[in-house]
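WARN no homologs supplied; continuing
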Amino acid sequence: MRPSTRLKQQKIIEAATQLFLEQGFAHTNLDQVIERCGGSKQTIYSYFGDKRGLLFAVVGHCIESVEQIFNFQYDKNSDLEQQLLRFGLNFLNTTLSPKLVHVYRIIIAESINDKELAEFFLAQGPHRVSNYLIEYLKSNMDQGKLLPSDPQTACDHLLSLLQGRIYKEALLGMKIPSKAVIKQHVELSVRCFLTGYQTPSA
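OK structure emitted
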C-alpha cells in the first residue's frame, strides 16, 4: 500500500472515530465523515466498503493501541512484580481512555444485532492480544517464578483483578478515578494475583 493511500485511510478512520464517539455510530453518516476529513463517498466505499466496514476499521485501529501494551517478553533478569505493575498501569490507563471506553460502548450496542462485529472484536481484540500475556505468564511458570497452572486462567484472573469495579463504572459513565487511586488499585490487584500464583521461593 502506498504511503499516500495509508495516510488517506488513517484520516478517514480518525474522522470517523471522532464522530462515532461524539454522536454514536447510528447517528453518524458518511457525509459527515467526508465533511470532516475531505474526500468522497466513493473513496470510503473503495477503502472500507460501507459505514459498517468503516466501523470495523475503527475498532481494529483502537485494538492496535492496546496490543502494544501486551506485547512484552519474558526476561529472566526482570523483577516479576515490577513488570506486572508496569503492565497493569499501562493496561488500565489505556483502557480507561475516553476513546476506548466509548468505542467499547459502541461495540456493545452494535454487536447485539451484529454477531460478526462481536466475533471480530473478540478475535482481534481480547482473544488475540491476551495471548501475549498468556505466553509471558507461561514463561514465568516454566521458570518457576509462578506456580504451574493454566496460563489462560491466570491471564483471566489478572485482567479481571485489574479492571474490577473501576472499568465497569467507567463503561456506565461514572467518573474515572485519579491516577493515584488507579495506581493503588493496580498495586493491590498485582499483589492479590501474586499471592495466589507466585511460588514461595520466588
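The mean pLDDT is 90.
OK
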